[in-house]
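User: My instructor asked us to take a sequence, write out its structure as tokens, and then describe one feature of it. I'm not sure where to start. Here is the sequence I was given:
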Amino acid sequence: MGPGSIAVAAVAAVGLVVLLMYNRLVRLRNRVQSAQADLEVQLARRHDLIPNLVETVSAYARHERATLEEITSARAQGVAARTASEEAAADEQVTAALGRVMAVAEAYPDLKADERFRALHDELVATENKLAFSRQLYNDTVQSLRDATQSVPGVWLAGPLGFEEPPFFAARSDERGVIDARFEE
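Assistant: Let's start with the prediction itself. The structure tokens for your sequence are:
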């Protein structure tokens, strides 16, 4: 094997590594986009439930208008969110507003017993569980992409090839505080 053949083999090996690394980065970027889309589906599902919840609660609690308007406003911000950071901020507001609506519901025993409200409540709980899973999946895929772009040889290729690091879906500020455990009835 001559020096020319060795040089060609070395260039081919480097080209193969670059090709494999590029394909890996593309797969990871697509997984992040897919996870973000799944998260958006769950957020949209929750946003779709909110008008029904507000209507049901408002029938019982007409004087709680400010709380109900707050959740409607938070929902509108969530629908208008376009980036992961905006979605995280809107998600935080919707979650806080939903907590206040549930507190209003606690004040109305007839509302808690209402079949429609209970069905909405159960649907919201299921949606919140799906949201938690979607957030975790999104963050796991973002971490995989970040690991690939920040480690060798990805760090040499990711920037020049245009791969950006997406933000993590941040935990809500109230989730970092002390947990207030209350048991219902």
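For the description part of your assignment, you could build on this observation: DSSP finds six helices and no strands in the chain. Try explaining in your own words what that tells you about the chain.
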